[in-house]
Write a structure and sequence with these properties.
Organism: Veillonella criceti
CATH architecture of the largest domain: Alpha-Beta Barrel
Pfam family, one: MerR_1
Shape: elongated
Structural class: alpha+beta
GO molecular function: DNA binding; DNA-binding transcription factor activity
Distance between the termini: 98 Å
Protein name: Multidrug transporter activation protein
Radius of gyration: 30 Å
Order of helices and strands: EHHEEHHHEEHEEEEHEEE
Keywords: DNA-binding, Repressor, Transcription, Transcription regulation
Oligomer: single chain
CATH topology of the largest domain: Multidrug-efflux Transporter 1 Regulator Bmrr, Chain A
Number of helices: 7
Number of strands: 12
C-alpha cells in the first residue's frame, strides 16, 4: 500500500518544505495525510500534490495560513480571483512602504556620508557648491517675549515641523536645519524672521507648515560645529564672501548633519554646513 503513497519526508522535499512544517499543517487541519501507519508514519496521495503546491504558492505571496485555510475550504475560480486581487493590493501597499523607507534611508546615508568626509577635512575653508532646487517645509522661530532666539526656541520650532512631518507618515530621516533671512544677517538680531526647516520629497504637498523651494544656484559653503543660534562662523563667512567679490543673494541655510546626540560631552553642539547663496558683484 505504501508503494502508491508519498512519505512525509518526500512530500516535504518535493515542495521545499520541512517535515515539521507538514506536521504543523496537519495539526491545524490545513493539509493532512491520507494515511497514518500504526508506527505514526504519515503518507500522502499523489493527487494531493496540486493542493500543497497551491498552498505553497499562496503562502509565498504573503497570504496568511488562516486566510489560506479559509480559502481552501471554499475554493472556486471567483474566490481565487478575489483573493489574488486583495493580495495584489496588499503587496502594492507594502511596496509603497518599502519605497518610503528606502527614500528615508537614502536621505540619512547622504547626511552621514557628508559628515564622515567633512570631519576629516579642514573645516575653516569655504568652498563653492551648486545646488538644484530643494523642497522644504519651513516654520518661523517661536521667539521669546524679548524677541530673542535661543536653543529652546529653536527646539520648540523644530518639534512643530517634525509633528507636521509625522502626520504625513514620513520617517524622521530627512535633512533639517535653520534658515536665516538675508535681510536680518547684518542686523543686531540675525535670527529675526528666520526659522527651522525640514527637507521633503519634491512632489509632497498638504503640509500645515509653509512649503518653500530653496532656489537653484551657487552657494558658498562652510562646515560649522556649534549651537544653531551661534552666528560666529557665519559672520566670518560673510566677510570672506565680500572679500572674494561675491554678494549674498538669498536666505542662508544652516544644514544639520550630526545632531546633539553625537556631542558626547555637552550634548549641546551640532555639526552642520552653512550654505549661502551668492552671485558675483557686477
Amino acid at each position: 500500500m505504501h508503494e502508491n503513497l508519498i512519505s512525509i519526508s518526500d512530500m516535504a522535499k518535493l515542495h521545499g518544505l520541512t517535515r515539521p512544517t507538514l506536521l504543523y499543517y496537519d495539526s491545524i487541519r490545513l493539509f493532512s495525510p491520507v494515511y497514518v501507519a500504526d508506527n505514526g508514519y504519515r503518507y500522502y496521495s499523489r493527487i494531493q500534490i496540486p493542493l500543497l503546491r497551491e498552498i505553497c504558492f499562496l503562502k509565498s505571496l504573503g497570504v496568511s495560513l488562516k486566510d489560506i485555510q479559509k480559502h481552501i475550504s471554499q475554493r472556486n475560480p471567483e474566490a481565487e480571483l478575489q483573493l489574488l486581487v486583495e493580495q495584489e493590493g496588499k503587496i502594492e501597499r507594502e511596496l509603497q512602504e518599502l519605497g518610503r523607507k528606502r527614500l528615508a534611508l537614502q536621505q540619512r546615508l547622504y547626511m552621514y556620508k557628508e559628515a564622515v568626509i567633512a570631519v576629516s577635512q579642514p573645516q575653516e575653508t569655504p568652498f563653492i557648491r551648486h545646488y538644484k532646487p530643494r523642497s522644504i517645509i519651513f516654520h518661523p522661530f517661536q521667539a521669546s517675549e524679548t524677541g530673542d532666539i535661543d536653543r529652546q526656541n529653536i527646539h520648540l520650532t523644530a518639534m512643530g515641523l517634525w509633528r507636521d512631518l509625522y502626520s504625513h507618515e514620513f520617517l524622521p530621516a530627512y535633512s533639517f536645519g535653520t534658515i536665516l533671512k538675508k535681510e536680518s544677517l547684518l542686523t543686531e538680531k540675525p535670527l529675526k524672521d528666520g526659522g527651522c526647516y525640514i527637507r521633503i520629497p519634491i512632489e509632497s504637498t498638504g503640509f500645515e507648515s509653509t512649503l518653500v523651494t530653496l532656489p537653484e544656484g551657487t552657494y558658498v559653503c562652510q562646515y560649522k560645529r556649534g549651537r544653531p543660534n551661534d552666528v560666529t562662523v557665519l559672520n566670518r563667512l560673510l566677510g570672506w564672501i565680500e572679500k572674494e567679490g561675491y554678494e549674498v543673494c538669498g536666505d542662508v541655510v544652516d544644514a544639520c548633519f550630526l545632531d546633539t546626540t553625537f556631542d558626547e560631552e555637552l550634548h549641546d553642539e551640532v555639526f552642520s554646513m552653512l550654505q549661502v547663496p551668492v552671485k558675483r558683484v557686477e
